[in-house]
Amino acid sequence: AMPRDYSAVAAIGSLLDKVPLLLPLLLFWVANNLLHGFAFSVEAWSSQRYYAARDTREASLVAALWIGLTSLRYLLLPAIAVLALPLAARIADPEQALPAVMPDTLGSGLFGLMVAGLLAAGMSTVSTIVNACAAYYVRDIHHAYVRPQASERDLTRVAYLTSLLILIVGGAFG
After folding, report:
1. Per-residue confidence at 41, pLDDT binned at 50, 70, 90?
2. pLDDT reported for residue 60
């Protein structure tokens, strides 16, 4: 392993003095997390967390968990950037910061766990989008307009076919 030079990290203090908008950015970050935590958003994805709750107590627990976890999520990017500063000479593309930092910073076990977690997060995102799109089509279009008398078995079959079609189209254009 290469010796790490963290003198570049010390330059962060002087950088913070030169960024006059740091406080408004931090306030925006806190407000953004709170608003998303309380389901104040224009997209339906975040609101569905609360619609699925059994009661208001469970919905408030989901909100508290969401606010806490998304707050940590937004700290990950600056942390990776700070850890990548000593490796800046080796990194030509900023998108390569995480792959460069992980093997140098984490041990082999944590590195494998991190890779597995990143793959699981990606697969979870894809499956959520595919299932939501198929459900929207089946309930809002197919069942409402194409075949209102369709049985649950027929709707399930249409959902499977719609999911497959979404994956094929997504793979072709993605």
Report:
1. low
2. 85
> 24-42 in b/e burial notation, b at 16+ Cβ within 10 A?
eeeeeeeeebeebbebeee
pTM, rounded to two decimals: 0.61
Q: Half-sphere exposure of residue 138, counting CA atoms within 13 Å on the CB side?
A: 22
DSSP collapsed to 3 states, 33-91: HHHHHCCCCCCHHHHHHHHCCCCHHHHHHHHHHHHHHHHHHHHHHHHHHHHHHHHCCCC
Higher pLDDT, 37 or 85: 85
CB atoms within 10 A of CB 19: 9
Joined tokens for residue 121: 């997060």
d(CA 57, CA 49): 13
Reported as a single tens digit per residue, the pLDDT across 83-105 is 888 888 888 888 888 888 888 78
Task: Measure the CA–CA gap between 113 and 119, rounded to whole angstroms.
Answer: 10
Amino acid in position 109: G
Over range 100-129, report the average pLDDT.
Answer: 91
How wide is the angle at C-alpha 5 spanned by C-alphas 26 and 113, nearest 5°?
70
